[in-house]
Amino acid sequence: MDEEFLINFTPQETRVALMQQGAVQELHVERTGGRGIVGNIYLGRVVRVLPGMQSAFIEVGLERTAFLHVADIFGEKNGSARSIERLIAEGETLMVQALKDPIGTKGARLSTQISLAGRLLVYLPQEKHIGISQRIEDEAGREALRSRLVALVPEDEPGGFIVRTMAESATDAELAADIAYLRKLWREISGSTVGLFPPKLLHEDLGLGQRTLRDLVTDETSRIRVDSRENFQ
Description:
By secondary structure, the protein is α+β, with helices and mostly antiparallel strands. It has helices at about 85, 140-150, 170-190, 210-215, and strands at about 5-10, 15-20, 25-30, 40-50, 55-60, 65-70, 95-100, 110, 115, 120-125, 130, 160-165, 200-205, 220-225. A five-stranded mixed beta barrel has the order 4-5-6-8-7. It has a four-stranded mixed sheet with strand order 3-2-1-14, covered by helices on one side. A hairpin with a 2-residue loop joins strand 2 and strand 3 (about 25-30). The longest helix is centred in the C-terminal third of the chain and has 20 residues, at about 170-190. It is globular and about 55 Å long.
């Protein structure tokens, strides 16, 4: 079924509507003053470790300190018997990524496992792993995509990738371009920490309009209408 996206910008908010046969099927709204932080990457500082809760509070420059649970600490010490006080210490500097926005009196939830989304792939710079989206159900197709990606990933790549559903019909050139883009983005983010002191925002995820193009537009999309090109830069 053909689908159409309508993207409307105002100084106060961005609105995206998914249309099918002239009817609105989905409506997404992102307010300028209340834009979420999920996906943002920060250089943070551990301000308090709570062994009883197996969690820590991290200062990342937001109104409230953010929350890091031991289950969201990535590293070689992964395991059921991990203790947060053995993994991080007060005053330590950490690179973290927002998993959940702040809600009410609760601060944002963080993870030390970084992931970067491209149009076709999700890059996992800390984990050498090739995964396939569960939405790709055909087992032969999954293995074919896995083999193609393994052949395209440079031998010196320490990280891994997850193949998104949009990659099912992608060419090798398109996959290679996404790999190169994500690797370059990670080099820029990780390299930007040199000489910085926390808290610091290192990377901000795309706004709603750009995320729509990256995540929602497919071969079934017949038209995208944007009412303000100037605001879509």
